[in-house]
Amino acid sequence: MDFSQTLIAKSDAILDQWVEAVYQDQQIEATNELTFKAVRDSLPRVLKALATVLSESETSDLQTVVDASLEHGTLRAEQGFEPAEIAREYRLLRFVIFSFLEEDLLQGSAQEVLRAVRLIDTVIDEAIARCFNSYTQGRLQELEQLQSQLRLTNQELTRLVRANKDTLSHLAHELKTPLTSIIGYSDLFLRQHREQPEFKDTYSNIESIERVLRNGRLLLRLINDTLEISRYDAGAMKLHPTLTNVPELINSVIEMIEPLARAKELSLVVDCDRAPEQVTTDPLRLQQILTNLLSNAIRYTEFGSIHLQSWTVSQQQWAISIIDSGIGISLDAQAQIFNAYFREITVPQVQSSDGTGLGLAIVSRLVQLMDGEIKVDSQLGKGSTFTVILPLEAIVQG
Ligand code: ADP
């Protein structure tokens, strides 16, 4: 029994029903912007290729389906389809084909029916895989372009940050929305990729998306950090002190930062035994201080460990030290590290690191706002200790 004849004979009707189903499916949103003709566009080729394969023996190669599906995938990428939408589109095709073949299938022997079902499934699965492949290529090209745009914007923003601080705050706000969507979109793309290992692409392609993400995140951080600084300088940064459990807060920061340390095989050692149980402080700002200091400690340390210690200094004060065994800071640089945009690059492997030169500038401003002080003690090649001393009771601002 040759089911391909039915497919060919009824191909117009199948196509119409398929396009209609794709068009009607609420979960395929990409079609909202497209005309009927645009949705139908490369579908006839895919269907014809499927029929051709079905009409030949089981061993026939799937090249025609492969080619048609690659072309279809490219088109769908251009049309802005999401991978899940493409998969849905093929699921609908499977459904439509079976509903058209039902009558013929009922007349065939069990063996013939099984063979036909298996063949149709194999061919459609192959079509989905190929379609995904070319979709991925299309998307990757788009991401590559985005990446080079981001790099330019990054350079431009850095120049502006240095040259003109007044218009910066406005500009940064303007840039934040597109950036957030770029990052969200790339993130989504990567997640879908990981979840569907059968469509996993080559390592270098994944790498290029990771690069876009890294650049996007760095740019976003630069903007956010710059906004923080300008907010502080404009006197607009306010503290919201509440009763805060110190060991709990420290542990939550450590949990957050731990994967960074693990990635560099650095151990994180926490000693809170002599820390005050509770203080009155702004917990979010304190978290920000600790996160910045700990991520610096990890960023500038290649071997050894990072220690965090906390203790009560007096009846009015308590302290936290973050001690690393990293590259250290020269005496000259120690005088400048709290200035915005200062970066001391002495070690080649750190040159490509993801710093902005704003982390410590923010930390020192926050510490000042909290009526505290920050000290650094460091030796080149040996490591650094940053100590923050804070009041046990933050003064509530009027
Ligand atoms: P960045 O984003 O460059 O890390 P920061 O303001 O946080 O910006 O730090 C400014 C500079 O201080 C860094 O570029 C680095 O040279 C130096 N620095 C900060 N923390 C450390 C550390 N723990 N060890 C060595 N150098 C550090």
UniProtKB/TrEMBL annotation:
Sorted UniProt keywords: Kinase, Phosphoprotein, Transferase, Two-component regulatory system
The EC number(s) this enzyme carries: 2.7.13.3
GO molecular function, one term: kinase activity
Catalyzed reaction equations: ATP + protein L-histidine = ADP + protein N-phospho-L-histidine
UniProt protein name: histidine kinase
InterPro entries hit by this protein: HATPase_C_sf (IPR036890), HATPase_dom (IPR003594), His_kinase_dom (IPR005467), HisK_dim/P_dom (IPR003661), HisK_dim/P_sf (IPR036097), RsbRD_N_dom (IPR025751), Sig_transdc_His_kin-like_C (IPR004358)
Histidine kinase domain: residues covered: 170-394
